[in-house]
Amino acid sequence: MAISRSRNTQHKVYIPSSARENQYILAKFKVTDELIAKVAGKIDESSAAPYQDFYQNLSKLFFQVCNEHGLESCKFVGNDKFSRVRYSPERLTAQTKEQILFLYNPKYHTSQSAYFRVDQRAKKITLVFLTNQDDIRAEAPIFHKKVKDAIAQFSEQVGFGADEIRVCDHQHLTYDLFAKDKGVTGTQTHKLRSIPVRYSASDVTVDENADALTYVTVDFPINKRIKSLVEIDESSNEPYSALYNLIADSFMNAAKRHNVTTGAVIANGLVPFVRTSDDEIAVVNGELQKLGYNPAHTGGGFTCKWSSDKLVDNAQLIFAASNQHQTTHGFGKFLNQVEQALRTMTENLEFINDKEELKVRFHQHVGFNL
Fold first, then answer.
1. How far apart are alpha carbons 144 and 199 in whole angstroms?
2. Assuming Cys at both sites, which of 79, 154, 287, 308 could form a disulfide with 238, CB separation 3.0 to 4.6 Å?
3. Using CA atoms, how far apart are residues 355 and 292, in angstroms rounded to an integer?
4. Which residue from 182, 247, 184, 260 is spatially nearest to 216, judged by alpha carbons?
C-alpha cells in the first residue's frame, strides 16, 4: 500500500493556494474579398474610412451573438495584432506595434470592445473570449461549450464554410514557486489531466484532430544579486554573455537532471509565445519570439536566445512537454519534474526564497478548425 500511495503521489502536484487560474478562447479567420462583400458590400477605396462599415457590421453581429449566449467579456480584434491575456487586479488593455494585451480579473471585470482601423484592411480577425467563471478550471468545459456554440452561430450567420475558423482554447495556472516561503499557507492539488480528458468527464467533446500543447513558462528575475554571481565587464561588446551563459547552463543542467529535455531560455527583450509546430523552431517577428514544438518529439533539446549586449529584467525559461510526459493520470508528474528542476537551479544560483519571486505558469492549449 505504501508503494502504491507513493506512485500515485508522483502524479499529483501541490501548488500554492494563492495560484491564479485563467482561461481564454481565440477564434481566428481570414479577411477575404468574399467576406467583405457579404458584410459591407462594395468598398470605396478612395474613402477616408473604407472599411468602417465592414468592421462595425461584423463586430455588431459578434457582440449580438455573444449577448445571446451570455458571454460578457469579448473582444473583436481587427488590427492583426497578436492577442495575449493575463490576470491583473486592474482592467487594462495595452497595445504595442505587434501585440494587444488584455489585463483583467475574471471575477470582477467584464467588457465588450472592438479594436480596428477603419482605413486599413486586416489580414485576419481575432475574436477573444475571456472567462468570468467562478471556478475557472472546474467550469472550463462549460465555458468552452458556450463559446463554441456562439462561434458556430456567428459562423452560420456570416456564412463561413467548414474549417474557415480556427479555435484555440488557452488555459493556465500561475503561482510563485516559493509562495510557502513567503507565508502563503494551504495548497491546491491537481493531476493536470489533458483538456480533452477533463472535458469528456463533463460530456463536452474536443475534435479528435485537435492539436494539444502543454508547457511551462517561468519569469526568472535578473536582479542585482544574480548579476553579482559573474564578472560583468561593461566596456566589453558582450558584457552580459557570462551572465546569460550561467543562467542557461544552470537551467539546462537542472532540466536534464530531472528528465525534462526540451525547452528554451529567452533573454533578448522579446516576448516569447509557444505554439504547435511540426518541427522545433524559433522565429522572430518584430517584438515577438515564436517557439514551435512538436509534442510527438521526445528529445527536442534546448534553444537559447539572448542578446549579450543587452541586460533584461527577466529571463524567460520554457519547459515543453512531449506526449510521453502525459500519463494516464495527466501532466502532474511533468510539472513535479519542472518544479524539481527549478529548485535545483535556484539552489545553485543561491536564490533567496522568501524575498525573490519565481513566477511559474503552467499552460495547456488545444486548437482545432470549426
1. 9
2. 308
3. 34
4. 260
